[in-house]
Amino acid sequence: MTGPAAGVATGSHDPANYIRQRDSRAGEGQARDLSYPPLPSPLTVGCYDNHTHLEIADGDDPLDYRQQLDLASSVGIRGVVQVGGDLESSRWSAEMASREPRMLAAVAIHPNEAPGYAASGTLDAALAEIDELAARPRVRAIGETGLDYFRTPESGRAAQHRSFEAHIAIAKKHDLAMQIHDRDAHEAVLETLLRVGAPARTVFHCFSGDAAMARVCADNGWYLSFAGTVTFKNAHNLREALTIIPRERILVETDAPFLTPEPYRGRPNSPYLIPLTLRFMADHLDTEVSMLAAQISSNTEAVYGSWNAEPVRQPGGVSPWDAAVDPAEIA
Ligand SMILES: [Zn+2]
User: Fold this and answer.
1) How far is the CA of 329 from the centre of ligand 1 (A)?
2) Residues 258-279: tens digit of each pLDDT
3) Which of 4, 6, 216, 237 has its CA 20 to 30 A from that of 130?
4) Which helix (H) or strand (E) holds 26?
5) Where are the beta strands (DSSP E) in the chain?
6) In angstroms, what is the span from residue 63 Cα to ligand 1's centroid?
């Protein structure tokens, strides 16, 4: 690891430790800076990353999940919620969480994946497997599920709605938290939650609404998780929402490798960059970083429970749920 000025040194990585590569081009196809940002100065009070995808490699020399967790620990990040978006990444998330004490898992079929499963007639089978994975002790949330009217055309919306409501039922059945992906579908997401009833611990991952929506969430006791987008110049709506939602309902996340906070927008994101977003939020709320970190840590544990509750499987060791899943299936 070299000095703070330079990017984080990458090195030998184990390709078995991630299952897909992020597109190296940015949205409009222009080249991205693929170097990892430098380490921020460590937090004095630890915190958590509410939402990350360590199974997706990014950068010109990707860090694997262990390297990312080691770097995160070195700046005060106690743990992450590793989030699946299809069967493969949900299995990976559940399995890695069973081995890694700094990781808890969320499993689900992403709203942009649901139409594909429905089209191939495999959505019900996929939902049944998510229901099975939800029973694993270090799976603590159903997510990311929800609605996305930005990427999915009209033709795929019926499948998204069916999938969303099925995931709400699975979260309630297992008394798990739920992480919502909502892109350009605020009204439909709120309508669904108010009609079918939201799970007790409902989190809007990478909140993208405005002040009015934040008030509805506050009235219903739902959590808002803020990503690096809150640091973006034009994100006035997010900063307003941040001041509206009660402190007890605030979480912070990366959605890594995506949504890297300023001043490193477009470069690979990682849980070790949480301190940047947290400091920005504390500054905007005019509060001490350590106070906000302590508050968000207790909020995070209130939603997902303790990271130390269940033992992880020791390398080569056996665990109560070993019989349930054959790791060979994971790869
Ligand atoms: Zn995500």
Assistant:
1) 23
2) 999 999 999 999 999 999 999 9
3) 216
4) none
5) 20-21, 47-52, 56-57, 77-83, 103-107, 139-148, 177-183, 202-204, 223-226, 250-252
6) 18
Digit-coded pLDDT (tens) for 175-215: 999 999 999 999 999 999 999 999 999 999 999 999 999 99
Distance 53 CA to ligand 1 centre (A): 7
How close is the Cα of 328 to the center of ligand 1, in Å? 25
CA of 331 to the centre of ligand 1 (A): 21
Cis-peptide into 257, omega within 30 deg:
yes
Residue 24 CA to ligand 1 centre (angstroms): 17
List the domain boundaries for the chain.
47-309
- Separation of 170 CA from ligand 1 center, angstroms? 19
Q: What is the Å distance from ligand 1's center to 39 Cα?
A: 22
- Tell me the whole-structure pTM to 2 decimals: 0.90
Residue 95 phi, psi dihedral angles, 5° rounding: -70, -45
CA 299 to each of CA 47, 156, 183: distance values in angstroms, whole numbers, following the listed order: 10, 35, 24
